[in-house]
């Protein structure tokens, strides 16, 4: 039971009956993800319990599952992955003021301690991380927005992306990259160039970007596209590796390149960003979606029970946009 909080009645279950979740009890490959019955979350004073309608699947999820981040975050088993959620509020803590039972919401649900994620029927999120679900987006699209959208916004803001800028986005067809192309335009960039494979060039154009193929000769091909000194005002790296190594040479000022993949960008004079929950920024992204200025591309939807298949697909790479789990 929740205690002193406001609750609503779920349309499919009784409160306190226990929830279905996909969790792991050991690190490993995708097969360690299994459906389990686990206790309902407790709100706490400032918590919001969300009935999950959809949960975004992100590369960080399979890195956690595989144990790659076990030294970066405290954790406990059983561990439910997932940091993206869209759904309906079913309970709020007594100190909550901005959210009410019945609201359709979305959130970047990362916590400093990893255990109770979003691959579940219910998840608790701090009020500060929650934003209204945009009316123009489905629950699946809304679930694909928080982590990737905030990553794009916070990284572009870290390098002062603004009016008149020429911006390069590495991995522009991916989950973060396709949103970054659009957000950079919304921040005032006059041109946004995105690296992508040839099969995704039309997709980049549909987002308002100019595609260029990635590879070792990117600096030379970029110079032909932009003219002048062949460099850009700001660079956002969402893939690492070769892209990170190329960034300092193709940006006019080293401080205006940022990576969300590799903190070695700081050694190059650039910035490193690890996305933080921010309900206010997330609402601003939702407003962009409702204004028709931000679209969320969903590559594939899986039912919750097929979370392992979703992980396998994402680990293969080359996914356009977002992968999402749906919860009935």
TrEMBL record:
Which Pfam families has this protein been placed in? Answer: ADH_N, ADH_zinc_N_2
List the InterPro entries.
ADH-like_N, ER, GroES-like_sf, NAD(P)-bd_dom_sf, Quin_OxRdtase/zeta-crystal_CS, YIM1/Zinc_Alcohol_DH_Fams
Q: Which domain of life does the protein's organism represent?
A: Bacteria
Q: Which GO terms describe its molecular function?
A: oxidoreductase activity; zinc ion binding
Per UniProt, which keywords does this protein have? Answer: Oxidoreductase
Which ranges carry the Enoyl reductase (ER) domain? Answer: 28-325
* PANTHER family given in the database record: ALCOHOL DEHYDROGENASE RELATED, RETICULON-4-INTERACTING PROTEIN 1, MITOCHONDRIAL
Protein name (record): Oxidoreductase
Q: What is the lineage of its organism?
A: Bacteria, Bacillati, Actinomycetota, Actinomycetes, Micromonosporales
């Amino acid at each position: 039971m929740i205690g002193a909080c406001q609750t609503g009645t779920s349309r499919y279950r009784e409160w306190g009956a226990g929830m279905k979740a996909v969790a792991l009890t050991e690190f490993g490959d995708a097969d360690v993800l299994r459906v389990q019955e686990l206790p309902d979350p407790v709100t706490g004073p400032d918590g919001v319990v969300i009935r999950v309608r959809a949960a975004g699947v992100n590369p960080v999820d399979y890195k956690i599952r595989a144990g790659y981040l076990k030294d970066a975050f405290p954790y406990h088993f059983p561990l439910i992955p997932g940091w993206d959620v869209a759904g309906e509020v079913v309970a709020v803590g007594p100190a909550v003021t901005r959210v009410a039972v019945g609201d359709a919401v979305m959130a970047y649900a990362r916590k400093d301690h990893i255990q109770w994620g979003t691959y579940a029927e219910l998840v608790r999120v701090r009020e500060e991380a929650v934003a209204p679900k945009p009316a123009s987006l489905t629950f699946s699209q809304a679930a694909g927005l928080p982590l990737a959208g905030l990553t794009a916004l916070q990284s572009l803001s870290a390098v002062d992306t603004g009016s008149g800028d020429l911006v390069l986005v590495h991995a522009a067809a991916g989950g973060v990259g396709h949103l970054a192309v659009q957000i950079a335009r919304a921040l005032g960039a006059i041109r946004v160039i995105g690296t992508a494979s040839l099969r995704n060039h039309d997709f980049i154009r549909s987002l308002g970007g100019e595609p260029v193929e990635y590879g070792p000769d990117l600096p030379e091909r970029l110079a032909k596209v932009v003219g002048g000194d062949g460099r850009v005002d700001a660079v956002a790296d969402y893939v690492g590796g070769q892209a990170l190594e190329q960034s300092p040479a193709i940006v006019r000022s080293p401080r205006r390149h940022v990576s969300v993949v590799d903190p070695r960008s700081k050694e190059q004079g650039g910035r490193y960003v690890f996305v933080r929950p921010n309900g206010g920024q997330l609402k601003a992204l939702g407003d962009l979606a409702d204004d028709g200025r931000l679209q969320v591309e969903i590559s594939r939807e899986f039912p919750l029970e097929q979370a392992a298949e979703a992980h396998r697909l994402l680990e293969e790479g080359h996914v356009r946009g977002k992968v999402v789990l749906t919860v009935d």
